[in-house]
Amino acid sequence: MANHTWAVLWDVDGTLVDTAELHFQAWCALARELSKPFTRADFAGTFGWRNPEIIPLLFGTHHGLDEVHRLGDRKEDLYRAEAMKGVGLLPGVLAMLAGLADAGGKQAVGSSAPRKNLDLILDMTRTARFFGGVVSMEDVSRGKPDPMVFLMAAEKLGVSPARCVVMEDAPVGVQAAKAGGMKAVGITFVGHHPAEKLHGAGADLVVHSLEHVGVGTIRALLGIAP
User: Fold this and answer.
1) Average pLDDT over residues 200-215
2) pTM to 2 decimals?
3) Phi then psi for 182, rounded to 5 degrees?
4) What is the rounded CA–CA span in Å between residue 147 and residue 174?
5) Rounded to the nearest 10 degrees, how much is the dihedral formed by the CA atoms of 16, 20, 26, 27?
6) For all residues of the chain together, what is the average pLDDT?
7) Which end of the chain, N or C, is less packed with Cβ atoms under 10 Å?
């Protein structure tokens, strides 16, 4: 891996876009179909996790592996039906994506979401062109806070983990970045996790939105001269 390369690895939900309410409503609809409760606290407590980890926790461990996959697919179908009505980028994201590209930084997606969701979001926001790699739920066997998703994203780009900055909104994502030897920027815009939680998870920088972050900030985190 070349030492002069550097990269930014992006989480998607809550970082690139705010699709949280769409996910919450999809989980609520699935829970109603199962005659199970689902609360805001359940949602906040599992945000950023993979479906195979969420479903047994919230809906019982009696579901077999095939049933867990079926329920996960059903939830994502419900989510995508709503997302197709329109999804927008969070403040500052497009400028950051373009600025990083212009500055020679590589970019990839590292998300707990299914690949179909990511493809839909990148297509609807017209941002696929910025990313040299996408790592989704299907690509990893261990979810955040395990660093696997971000290590795979860095590998796809051919960039050392030490030369990567991760954009995240969830403590488990920040923990994953730090466990992988990467820098982490925590973003509080969607409001699921307060700044102190992101700091506590090890974030090197916490901001309200990417309107407050420039390419120079990213380079400084990596110790790269302007």
Assistant:
1) 96
2) 0.86
3) -110, 165
4) 9
5) 120
6) 94
7) C
Tokens of 33: 């179909």
Length of the chain: 226
Contact present, 182 and 162 (Cβ < 8 Å): yes
CB of 48 within 8 A of CB of 172? yes
pLDDT for 104-127, tens place per residue? 999 999 999 999 999 999 999 999
29-38 own/partner pairs: CB under 8 Å, 24+ apart = 29/75, 29/78, 30/71, 30/74, 30/75, 30/78, 31/58, 31/59, 33/74, 34/59, 34/71
CB contact at 8 A, 144 and 54: no
Residues noted as catalytic: 11, 13
**Structural domains in the chain plus CATH codes:** 7-18+88-221 (3.40.50.1000), 20-83 (1.10.150)
